[in-house]
């Protein structure tokens, strides 16, 4: 499996001079690697010599990436097998997703004949901070979350979003029709990968639900999943995407629960929860909320009720009284009121972190004139460094909280601008 993410030599079969083609994108993305270009109709591409067949390349090839018309794929896979190249990514589409199962059967026979490992067909490829073996536009930022998806286009969209948000991944993997390498293989690989702390999945359908469940149960790292195809119409649509009709959603829901998998309902939730779990281990459900806005306090109570967050009792903590305004009450959520200073936030956070009955804290900051948002963020970061308890931050606003958010993001403190999402992610940490 490592050869798909860290190959020493790569053959691009279907390399192209057409700047609008997949074959050209693959070449451009891999110019910093040791690549061999296969195209019988060209002498060179981007200044690199081409070969008419992988069989003409003298050096051993660790990974072959195939981007040729579907009908030619079995022929070039056979040549890979004869060459001794065991790892193949098939980008090409036109297989079971359009009803062409016969071609996939041919590939499976070649896999057995030559003992191959095949990723795809009908996939985007793989992207890591160190290699872009795909036709996606760029590599990703370095991180500790692995994302495995049945949809390549979703990876494209997520990659674009992650570059804007500076959200990092250890790898993004598109499995496409998954005739050979599927979710189970990647779960086992990333569980052993020291650079991965959380495994996130986008699932439309599973070929072998029991194998998937058994693999997931063995995994020691958190697994977060978003499942599409929950309705009957969506299940039919899935068949035209990956070539398989999904089972009724209740079966998946049961499988996820039995396997200890965390299921979410949106991509936004998927990566919010994954981020929190990549920073903190799961803990007990007894939380405290600090805010400088009464409205945010009330909203957080609503969300706590919705997502099953248990608010700890702080009514007897007289230590909180220092730095607090006369009108404040010792209750959870703790309202520091609108003129809250960074010193008031710091005092409250320290006191609450010291309490044995509090296992996680959500700090809400709104950009009021009396509150220096950036200084509060800096205090939160410095204080939480001395404790092992999870501290999440919700910066409600836009431009006035941007600098503070960038600061906390760079310090790997889970930070949100949406209070509902912050409470939701916290609920998955303490459940």
Give an account of the 3D structure.
It is built from 15 helices and 19 strands. Helix content is 39%, strand content 19%. Strand 17 (360-365), helix 13 (373-384) and strand 18 (391-395) form a beta-alpha-beta unit. It starts with a helix and ends with a helix. Helix 3 runs parallel beside helix 4, helix 10 (267-279) crosses helix 15 and helix 12 packs parallel to helix 13 (373-384). The chain has a seven-stranded mixed β-sheet with strand order 3-4-2-1-5-6-7, with helices on both faces. It has helices spanning 2-5, 22-29, 73-83, 101-114, 152-165, 183-192, 209-218, 232-242, 249-259, 267-279, 294-307, 342-353, 373-384, 399-410, 419-430, and strands at residues 10-13, 35-38, 44-45, 48-51, 63-66, 87-90, 117-119, 125-127, 132-134, 141-149, 168-174, 198-203, 223-227, 262-264, 287-291, 334-335, 360-365, 391-395, 415-416. The protein is elongated and about 80 Å long. The chain folds into three domains: 2-119, NAD(P)-binding Rossmann-like Domain (Rossmann fold, 3-Layer(aba) Sandwich), CATH 3.40.50; 125-279, Rossmann fold, CATH 3.40.50; 287-430, 3-Layer(aba) Sandwich (Rossmann fold).
